[in-house]
Structure formats: structure tokens, C-alpha cells
């Protein structure tokens, strides 16, 4: 039954064009393909009007915590549409001009998750729209940091996080992942601060406090980014470099020594890097995620600055997005796995080329474990464990789970195992080349996959069982699962410890973060106080500078009521805003009466250090229990 359904699906998909979006980011098709790619998370009508270019002229006001100014759109109204609709969220629209003429506009009442649609009447031959606006106090893309919330604690800092649909809270725009446009910007900031964007960037402070930017390659709104603060720059090589606060810049430059090599390695795999420069900005501690793949300027968490380059694999992931995500983009958030599943696979290919197979095997093993956790948390029959999601009427962030990342990447690993690495690499190189600067849906990708790699081979189709992956729940039976030899050594060491036997120092002396995480994650929970103390005395986990290991250790400490770790844990919670770390810690505290009291006290103390997105998550964990 599945086999017949599958072939019927491909009969439909093969007829679909994979090139549904031009470089301007708009498609006027009315075919079945357009229906499949309808973006339910934008209220704009950019599917009918060509959104060609955005010119921003804005001022950043730290005292008022507002961005204000003008967003000027160049449009192409080939369909003679009578109004332009754009996305906004908690935004004041002061005035609108169409081709230089003042016009009346309408701002709808807010729709949950989506914000308020801005309606602008336009004549058939309109080309230029000027919108004067101010951001609101609930602009969720913006985190305004007071000096004490930064690393150096001397100057305020602002950064944006536009993914998934938060660009609309700081720019009136068509905020859909399948809508691409070029942009330029003039940004005025307070004296002594530097501005950076996902575009061409300065490398030193100027005296005018005005910065100019240009992104000549069309990008979707979620890749619009801005950072303003006391920022320094250091070069890595001729096309890569790092930005950070002055007190962090030397450490960041040391940590990112191999970023230039990463770019070259990625190019050897899947073709040229097409964005010019690749730089990294290390943000203040409150950044809620590991990294954000803003074109030309990855935003990243300071939690990867471990002092020994042990956590910079995160940069390989964000770099890989320069192909999967930024170059070829998921058409809607229902197709999110096309961004993240591909990127996780590409990241591991970069890592394997630089670190070797035995190292990357541990990443694949952890991927499988993370997928198991995600499926268990969501429920093995939950449709949110499908690769193709249905997020209509919901927050698209509901789909930003490990399903897209880990189920998606394991599907591609299965493809590689089935057809062979040489064919897989040839296919992916062609895929990136032929879809460069375009968007794609899940259905279009499956049609392209069949036409260019599977080619109707029934043996391959039966081995893959694609329906089970894309339109089925849980973990498919044919999911790759590697058991690394290096994890077997860590398992043996853990068994020795639990039996009260000493672990030889030479066994653990060269362990990577992966081995330590595997060693700790699979400990019984809770350990006794004495066992925790024994581990701490031997390996100094409470004082580790590795944030990944620290987080797992602190969760174990809460479960075991290992109080010697609590002061360091509080310092960790007060200086780290990454949701990956703080959510498990607060969740563990909320499991006991004593822990709840501690969680509520610490959250009240440090809440304002966390990004608004993290606050939303933690409110659900801490305040609703």
C-alpha cells in the first residue's frame, strides 16, 4: 500500500517545476505547485507583487529602545494589484508615500503569531513605496542590552534575531522565507558604537556614527540582521574574520583560527562560497541560540568560546547554511527540514574532512540520541515528527525542533549509504548549483531527487521508504545508527566508575567533548552525593570552561542535590542565555519543591538577561508551575 501511494506521489511531483521562485523572490504561478508552497505565515501579497529592493534609513535609539526611520520598497506590479500588503508586528506606522505622494493606509488588528497586516493602496504603475515607522516595545526580534548585560559592561548593545517571522517586528516587509529581495541601508547609531548587518560591513569604528550597507544578493527577510555595540574586528584570512566586544576579541580570534580552512573545505565539497566575505560576530551572553546564519555575518553565542577550540563545530554548521538555507532556501516553514537537515548533514561532512571519520561518527551517534529524545518528547505518533510539517494557525517556531535537524540529516545520510558517497556528492553539488538563490518546497525536492538521483530505481525506492521519513511519524526502521568505537571506550569507563573502580587517566586524557557528554549523559540519575563529589574531584566539572559539559553536569547536580556546584551553576545561569542550556536546567529544578524555589529565585534575578524568545520559553517552564 505504501509503495503504490509513493509511486502515485512521484507521478504528481515529477511534473512540478523545481524553479518556482525567481531571484527577485516571487512566483505568480497558479498551478498545484503554488498551492503546495503557499506560505501561511505571511499576510503579505508578495506572491502577486514583485518585491525587488529595500532601502532602509533608520536610527537606533537606546534611550527609547526604538528603531525609527524609513523603509523604501522598489516594487514591480505586473499583475496590476490594487494594494500592497506587508507584515508588521507591534509597529507604529507614521506615514506612507507611493511614488512620492502621501497616501492613506490601513493597519489591521493583530493576528495571533502573525501581527498586523499593513494595507497600502497602489496604482497599477507604482514603483516606489516609502514607509515611515517606529518599532514597538514588544518588537520580539530586538534585544536591547544595558551595559551590565554585555561582556565588557561598558556600553549598551542591540542585536536582532529575525528567524523565523520576527523581521516584521523591526521592518515593515513581506516576511516569508520564500520571498527574496536585495537591500541597502543607512544606520545611525550613538557616538562610539559600531553597526553591522548581514551585508557588506565596516571593520572599524567611524567618526560619523552613520554606517552604510549593501546586500546585492536577494535574501529573505528572516536573514535580515543588525547589531550595534562596542565592537572590534580581527582578521582570520583574506576573506574571513571575527567581530566581538573588545574584551572578548582576542579569545574569539584564537578560537576561530580554523574558520578560513572551514570555508575552503566546504567549497571542496559542494562548490564555491558565493557571498564574498564570511565573518563571525560573537554576541553578548544573552543570545538565545547557538548561531544564526545571517549572510556574510554569522551571529554566534559566546558559549562556544571554550579556550581550546573544542566547540567551534557550531561555526561549521552556520557556514554550511551559506549553501543549504541561504543559497537554497525552504519555501515555507513547513519545509524547514530542507534548511536544517541539509545543513546538519553538510556540517558533518565538513567536520569529517577536517577531523576524521572516528570523530564525526560520534556526532552521528549523538544525532541519533537527540532524535530519540525529540520523538519521545513530542510523541512517536505526533505529526510534528514528520519532516513535512503542518504549521497552519500555529507559531512556526513550533517546528524548529530536532526533527528537522536530526531526522532530516539522517535521511540524507541514508541516501548517501544507499547510493554511495560519490553519487550523493555529485547530486548535492548539482542541487546547490541549479537552485542557487531560489527557494524550494519538500514536494519539489522529492521530484528533483527522483529525477536526478533515484531515477525511478525501484530497489533504491524500497530501501529508502521515503514516505516513512517525509510523511510518517517517529524514527523510521531504516534510520542509520552508528555506534562509535570511541563511545564504547567511554561506556567502559562509566561502567568502571559505577562499580567503584578507578578510571585510568590515559583513557580520558584525550577525550573530546563528545566523549565526555556521552560519558555523563548516560549516567544513572541521580548519582549519589559521594559519586558526584568523586567525579568532581577527578575531572573538575563544576569549574569547566566547556559550556556543553557544564550544562549536563549542572543538570546532574540539581538531580543529585550536589550543592557544591550550585554557586557555579548560578553564575552560569546569570551569564548564559542560550535556550539549549538554560531550559533543561530550569526544567530539572522544577521537578522538586526545593528546586522550584531555587528556579523561581534565579529566574526572577536573571530574567532580564535573557532574550525575549528565551523568556517566553522559560515563562512556560517556571511561572506556570
Description:
The protein is built from 21 helices and 21 strands. The protein is globular and about 80 Å long. It folds into three domains: 166 residues, Neutral Protease, domain 2 (Orthogonal Bundle); 272 residues, tricorn interacting facor f3 domain (Immunoglobulin-like, Sandwich); 101 residues, Serine Threonine Protein Phosphatase 5, Tetratricopeptide repeat. The chain has 625 residues and is α+β, with helices and mostly antiparallel strands. Strands 5-4-8-2-1-11-13 form a seven-stranded mixed β-sheet, with no helix packed on it. Strands 15-16-17-19-18 form a five-stranded mixed β-sheet. The chain starts with a helix and ends with a helix. The longest helix has 22 residues.
Brief descriptors of the model:
625 residues, alpha+beta, Neutral Protease, domain 2, Immunoglobulin-like, Serine Threonine Protein Phosphatase 5, Tetratricopeptide repeat, 3 domains, seven-stranded mixed β-sheet, five-stranded mixed β-sheet
SSE diagram, text form:
Blueprint: H1 2-13, H2 32-36, E1 50-61, E2 66-76, E3 83-88, E4 91-98, E5 101-103, E6 106-107, E7 116-121, E8 128-135, E9 142-145, E10 157-160, E11 180-188, E12 194-197, E13 210-220, E14 226-229, E15 232-235, E16 240-244, H3 246-255, H4 259-270, E17 278-282, E18 291-292, E19 297-300, H5 313-320, E20 328-330, H6 337-355, H7 357-378, H8 402-419, H9 421-434, E21 438-440, H10 442-454, H11 458-464, H12 466-470, H13 485-498, H14 505-508, H15 513-521, H16 529-539, H17 547-560, H18 566-575, H19 579-589, H20 593-606, H21 612-623
Parallel strand pairs: 1-11, 16-17, 17-19, 20-21
Antiparallel strand pairs: 1-2, 2-8, 3-7, 4-5, 4-8, 6-7, 9-10, 10-14, 11-13, 12-14, 15-16, 18-19
Amino acid at each position: 500500500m505504501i509503495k503504490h501511494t509513493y509511486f502515485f506521489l512521484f507521478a504528481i511531483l515529477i511534473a512540478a517545476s523545481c524553479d518556482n521562485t525567481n531571484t527577485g523572490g516571487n512566483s505568480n504561478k497558479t498551478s498545484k505547485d503554488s498551492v503546495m508552497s503557499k506560505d501561511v505565515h505571511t499576510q503579505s501579497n508578495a506572491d502577486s507583487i514583485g518585491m525587488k529592493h529595500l532601502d532602509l534609513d533608520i536610527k537606533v535609539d537606546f534611550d527609547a529602545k526604538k528603531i525609527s526611520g524609513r523603509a523604501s520598497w522598489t516594487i514591480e506590479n505586473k499583475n496590476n494589484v490594487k494594494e500592497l500588503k506587508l507584515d508588521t508586528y507591534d509597529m507604529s506606522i507614521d506615514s506612507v508615500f507611493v511614488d512620492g505622494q502621501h497616501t492613506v493606509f490601513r493597519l489591521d488588528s493583530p493576528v495571533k503569531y502573525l501581527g498586523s497586516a499593513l494595507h497600502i493602496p497602489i496604482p497599477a504603475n507604482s514603483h516606489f513605496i516609502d514607509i515611515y515607522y517606529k518599532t514597538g516595545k514588544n518588537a520580539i526580534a530586538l534585544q536591547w542590552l544595558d551595559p551590565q548585560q554585555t561582556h565588557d559592561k561598558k556600553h549598551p548593545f542591540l542585536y536582532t534575531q529575525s528567524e523565523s517571522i520576527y523581521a516584521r517586528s523591526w521592518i515593515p516587509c513581506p516576511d516569508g522565507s520564500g520571498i527574496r529581495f536585495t537591500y541597502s541601508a543607512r544606520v545611525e547609531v550613538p557616538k562610539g558604537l559600531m553597526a553591522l548587518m548581514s551585508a557588506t560591513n565596516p571593520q572599524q569604528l567611524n567618526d560619523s556614527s552613520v554606517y552604510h550597507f549593501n546586500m546585492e544578493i536577494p535574501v529573505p527577510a528572516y536573514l535580515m540582521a543588525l547589531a550595534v555595540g562596542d565592537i572590534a574586528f580581527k582578521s582570520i584570512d583574506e576573506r574571513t574574520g571575527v567581530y566581538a566586544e573588545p574584551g572578548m576579541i582576542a579569545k574569539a580570534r584564537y578560537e576561530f583560527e580554523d574558520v578560513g580552512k572551514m570555508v575552503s573545505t566546504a567549497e571542496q565539497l559542494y562548490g564555491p562560497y558565493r557571498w564574498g566575505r564570511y565573518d563571525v560576530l560573537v554576541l553578548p551572553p544573552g543570545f538565545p541560540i547557538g548561531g544564526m546564519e545571517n549572510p556574510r555575518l554569522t551571529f554566534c553565542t559566546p558559549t562556544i568560546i571554550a579556550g581550546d577550540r573544542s566547540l567551534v563545530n557550531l561555526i561549521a554548521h552556520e557556514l554550511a547554511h551559506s549553501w543549504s538555507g541561504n543559497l537554497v532556501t525552504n519555501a515555507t516553514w513547513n519545509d524547514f527540514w530542507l534548511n536544517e537537515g541539509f545543513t546538519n548533514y553538510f556540517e558533518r561532512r565538513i567536520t569529517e574532512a577536517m577531523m576524521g571519520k572516528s570523530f564525526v561518527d560520534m556526532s552521528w551517534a549523538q544525532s541519533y540520541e537527540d532524535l530519540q529524545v525529540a520523538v519521545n518528547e513530542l510523541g512517536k505518533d505526533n505529526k510534528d515528527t514528520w519532516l513535512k510539517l503542518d504549521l497552519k494557525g500555529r507559531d512556526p517556531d513550533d517546528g524548529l525542533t530536532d526533527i528537522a535537524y536530526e531526522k532530516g540529516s539522517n535521511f540524507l545520510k541514508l541516501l548517501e549509504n544507499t547510493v554511495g558517497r560519490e553519487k550523493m556528492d555529485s547530486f548535492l553539488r548539482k542541487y546547490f548549483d541549479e537552485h542557487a538563490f531560489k527557494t524550494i518546497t519538500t514536494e519539489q525536492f522529492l521530484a528533483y531527487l527522483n529525477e536526478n538521483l533515484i531515477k525511478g530505481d525501484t530497489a533504491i525506492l524500497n530501501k529508502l521508504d521515503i514516505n516513512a521519513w517525509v510523511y510518517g511519524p517517529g524514527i523510521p526502521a531504516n534510520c542509520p545508527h552508528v555506534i562509535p568505537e570511541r563511545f564504547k571506550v567511554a561506556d567502559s569507563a562509566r561502567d568502571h566508575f559505577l562499580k567503584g573502580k578507578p578510571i585510568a587517566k590515559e583513557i580520558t586524557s584525550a577525550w573530546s567533548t563528545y566523549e565526555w557528554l556521552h560519558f555523563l549523559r548516560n549516567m544513572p540519575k541521580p548519582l549519589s552525593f559521594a559519586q558526584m563529589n568523586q567525579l568532581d574531584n577527578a575531572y573538575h566539572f563544576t569549574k569547566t570552561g566547556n559550556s556543553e559539559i557544564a550544562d549536563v553536569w549542572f543538570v546532574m547536580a540539581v538531580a543529585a542535590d550536589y550543592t557544591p556546584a550550585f554557586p557555579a551553576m548560578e553564575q552560569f545561569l546569570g551569564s548564559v542565555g542560550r535556550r539549549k542550556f538554560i531550559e533543561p536546567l530550569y526544567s530539572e529544578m522544577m521537578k522538586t519543591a526545593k528546586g522550584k524555589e531555587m528556579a523561581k529565585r534565579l529566574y526572577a534575578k536573571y530574567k532580564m538577561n535573557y532574550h525575549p524568545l528565551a523568556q517566553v520559553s522559560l515563562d512556560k517552564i517556571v511561572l506556570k508551575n
